[in-house]
């Protein structure tokens, strides 16, 4: 991507930030992703080759640092990158206020993946928590498991091999809004958008998780009325 050839600081910043996929990569790094595969998992549609190119460019620009130890390679935001990460989340708050998510862009896996990155395993009341989500679709439910463990969190598309601590039944839109902090658990249950089969301790955790999104307190703007 060529530069704008301008002295304007906005143009200079856009040369780093405004490439396709770069904000998503920075977001994933800010959410704690350190491995190439982790970053890729949280960016459906991003190819391995493009991710490698973007990471190389971000390293060159001083936004990301690459650490290697034997066969293990990790990526992390530098001081410059962390500041850019804050800007990324500020941009997200603007998007939460002014933009609406199209139905086709509502991805239950990505919503749970993002939520899993926000949950601190050290805050869990048990060493391991497994929640099954039965997501209603056009025909049969789509099953996803949120596996939270002191060694790390993940989203599984097949049973992880541990007993379910609880089951949440919902639809795609309600799940995405709950993960984004736009739909409270109590309200979702009252409106029957979500149904729970879970012990009280897990109900409390689910209510807490639904408030973890950095955009949970962002009120959507009212759509302007057309002028007659």
From TrEMBL:
The UniProt keyword set, sorted, is:
DNA-binding, Transcription, Transcription regulation
Q: Which GO terms describe its molecular function?
A: DNA binding
**A matching Pfam family:** HxlR
- Name the domain of life this protein comes from: Bacteria
**InterPro entries in UniProt:** ArsR-like_HTH (IPR011991), HTH_HxlR (IPR002577), WH-like_DNA-bd_sf (IPR036388), WH_DNA-bd_sf (IPR036390)
Q: Which CDD domains match?
A: HTH_ARSR
Enumerate the spans annotated as HTH hxlR-type domain.
Answer: 8-103
**Protein name per its UniProtKB record:** Transcriptional regulator, HxlR family
Source organism of this protein record:
Geodermatophilus aquaeductus
